[in-house]
Amino acid sequence: MAIYPCCFSFLLVSLFVSFCYAEIRLTEIRHDDRPIIPFDEFGFTHSGRLELNVSNIALSNQNPDLDMSKVGFFLCTRDAWMQVLLQIEDGYINCALNSDFVKLVFEFKQLKGKSNSFNTVYQENTADQYTLVFANCLSHVKVSMDVRSAMYNLDGKEKHRDYLSAGKTILPRVYFIFALVYFTLAGIWIYVLYLKRLTVFRIHLFMLAVIILKAVNLLCEAEDKSYIKRTGSAHGWDVLFYIFSFLKGVMLFTLIVLIGTGWSFLKPYLQDKEKNVLMVVIPLQVVANVAQIVIDETGPFGHDWMVWKQVFLLVDVVCCCAVLFPIVWSIKNLREAAKTDGKAAVNLMKLTLFRQYYIVVICYIYFTRVVVYALVTITSYKYLWTSVVAGEVATLAFYVFTGYKFKPEPHNPYFVIDDEEEEAAAEQLKLEDEFEL
Ligand SMILES: *[C@@H]1O[C@H](CO)[C@@H](O)[C@H](O)[C@H]1NC(C)=O
């Protein structure tokens, strides 16, 4: 059973992940001697703006003869950055600020008199994805300052500010549509439960809760993104979004474990080792969500961003692998039961169902973790939303499959099966044994 290849390629691909954020961001730089400090990345359209407000500037060296044209902010695309690095390597220039591949936003020599702050608006009319970068080419000079950066595009005729990056500006609509789809699914599920109310198990109500949480979570995400789009900050919607993300994450993983163990429709209780899986997965989900919040709030170039990113990925991999074990145990138990209790046909049916479920869970995890991240890295910044859609479609397919396969049905193990069917099933189980499928 291929648990490990999935985890491994997941780790591999995640190393190449990149994100881009777009909110108004406040950053405090304190006694920093890094020659290059990257800030946020943003996809500009033809009417992009960068608003930069820097205050409390202080250099560790107060010498008035310092060459202040070697300190400043610029915008740069990834390709241009490669060219700049080449130029520096060739000795053609000695400071990124001097390269003609970068777009100079502000040089500190423009600071007037004794002023220790500046405000500037930079217009970017060439559509592309840029990173705001601070360069300090003075050696042994530490910089302190408070940076407020806001990047946005001016949209439509009314020139509304759009704080979402070019490839993400339709995300609020995308999330809203998916939220509607899940609310519809919840409605359908309630109807199915009502029709088959005599054979409804507790697991079916649990599934209903998971669908509703997913729908509410998408709604919060739509509102969160739409608020950022209009104002550049999340203003509380992110809190709701994180709460529902957490609940949804815990419930979904629990649901996969419960279905995987056959809880409530194969057996009423969980075994100890199955409970242990839940004991591992649920606290890890707490950690994963804390990491996610820190990642979102600090931006890709914060000090500890990479650490939290790795924590998140590691925890996610462990959770994904952990939920597979109960399914494997169930498959093993069913195979053993098939040999001993003589009800070959019924057991074969269940066995097939659990194997399908196992494969679908692996595909779901693989697609939402590996393929979607790969898509993020290979698609152009203008189409970043497509990876979100791909991930949501895969998730939707997983929910629909789970609901369809495990819908309430009369699970009567004594339903009539004629001898021929029973024999054929026994034969197939024997065959499987020989090949150890
Ligand atoms: C930042 O600078 C811009 C351009 O001068 C100015 O319009 C804006 O009000 C400033 N914002 C803050 C918060 O100081």
From TrEMBL:
It comes from the Eukaryota. GO terms for cellular component: Golgi apparatus; membrane. Keywords: Membrane, Signal, Transmembrane, Transmembrane helix. Residues 1-22 form the signal peptide. Its main location: membrane. It is a multi-pass membrane protein. The chain crosses the membrane at residues 174-194, 201-219, 239-265, 307-329, 357-376, 382-401. It is found in: Membrane. Residues 172-412 form the GOST seven transmembrane domain. Residues 28-153 form the CAND6/7 N-terminal domain. It holds the Pfam family CAND6-7_N. This is Protein GPR107-like. The lineage of its organism: Eukaryota, Viridiplantae, Streptophyta, Embryophyta, Tracheophyta.
